[in-house]
Write a structure and sequence with these properties.
The chain is mainly alpha-helical. 54% of the residues lie in helices and 1% in strands. It contains nine helices and two strands, in the order H-E-E-H-H-H-H-H-H-H-H. The protein has a two-stranded antiparallel sheet with strand order 1-2. A hairpin with a 3-residue loop joins strand 1 and strand 2. Helix 3 packs parallel to helix 6, helix 3 crosses helix 8 and helix 5 packs antiparallel against helix 9. The radius of gyration is 49 Å and the shape is elongated.
């Protein structure tokens, strides 16, 4: 009927409580108990539409957890939702174990790389030591008579000073040249640059040591090969050779001399690493370091030779030095 309040908007009265209508003591006309209202109300059917609230909410989402607790449905075929991505909850212990295995694998790879690099460096140093040993007999050495002609009127100390100054300038030139070549850093070329620098400086210093032995009257006995071995030993150990004591001359190209050469070459390579600095900084560093190292080696050898010096007047007539067939061009 028009004007009546719809049943859905009527207020429900609590059970066991009555209300007077407009101050009366009895129940109001047309008012039903709450119990009768509850029994008379019907749940909306699924999918039914309410005029003011829209479609009724589905209870399937609320019932889903209870169904999951009861166990999987017998007719369930696939756990992966259609169009979705399967998410697997990883076991923390398994994840930690996998991470430990990955870290161990990385550490092992680094260890193998370091070991392989060390073996390569050792092989390279051994190869460089062999090249220095092959180079030593090709270094031209001036005998005492030739030195006296080149420096007329000078004594042993003055000639020695001239020789050390010239060798220091020559090694500084080599260092500056290698440093200039490293102006633009090229990592594959750096080992070759270091090898060239060490070989060139070794030839200069071996020539200096041989001529200092001539100036102080302490020429090692033997032929070209024996003298070259003695000069190599003097360069590797940074000391002078005493011809009167055969134990100071390592006459065999064996293990001891090779070990000493490897140690000397390794020490030189470590000291010469700063000369590979780019932008012409390495040129200045290489010149200064090579000059200092050559003077240091010359000072050690000169100190030993000066203590056993034989005056020129007491020297017997020495034959001219045997020159190599294919000498290396070294001039200072």
């Amino acid at each position: 009927m028009a004007g009546d309040t719809p049943s859905r908007k009527r207020r429900l009265r609590l059970l066991g409580r009555s209300e007077t209508y407009k101050g009366g003591s009895g129940s109001a006309e047309g008012v039903t108990d709450a119990s009768s209202a509850v029994h008379s109300a019907h749940l909306p059917s699924p999918g039914a539409r309410d005029d003011e609230r829209g479609h009724a909410a589905s209870l399937e989402a609320a019932d889903a957890p209870h169904q999951a607790d009861d166990g999987p449905a017998p007719d369930k075929q696939d756990d992966t939702p259609k169009g979705g991505v399967l998410r697997r909850v990883a076991n923390p212990a398994r994840v930690q174990l996998d991470r430990i295995k990955l870290d161990n694998a990385r550490i092992e790879a680094v260890r193998r790389g370091v070991k392989r690099g060390g073996q390569g460096a050792k092989a390279g140093i051994g190869y460089l030591a062999d090249r220095v040993m092959e180079l030593a007999p090709r270094v031209p050495v001036r005998d005492l008579a030739t030195l006296q002609r080149h420096f007329p009127g000078l004594g042993p100390e003055q000639i020695a000073d001239k020789l050390i100054t010239g060798a220091a300038n020559a090694s500084a030139t080599v260092g500056a040249g290698i440093g200039a070549a490293a102006m633009l850093p090229v990592p594959p070329a750096m080992p070759a640059e270091l090898a060239a620098e060490i070989t060139g400086v070794a030839a200069i210093e071996i020539k200096l040591i041989a001529e200092l032995h001539e100036v102080y009257g302490l020429r090692p006995p033997g032929g070209l090969t024996q003298r070259s071995t003695a000069y190599l030993t003097s360069w590797a150990e940074e000391r002078g050779i005493d011809p009167t004591k055969p134990t100071t001359v390592n006459a065999a190209l064996g293990g001891q001399l090779k070990r000493e050469l490897r140690q000397q070459i390794m020490k030189r390579m470590v000291r010469n690493l700063p000369m590979l600095t780019p932008f012409m900084v390495g040129a200045a560093v290489g010149a200064v370091m090579n000059r200092r190292d050559t003077r240091k080696v010359a000072a050690h050898v000169r100190k030993d030779l000066r203590a056993r010096q034989i005056p020129w007047d007491a020297l017997p007539d020495l034959p001219p030095l045997e020159q190599p067939e294919n000498p290396k061009e070294i001039d200072f």
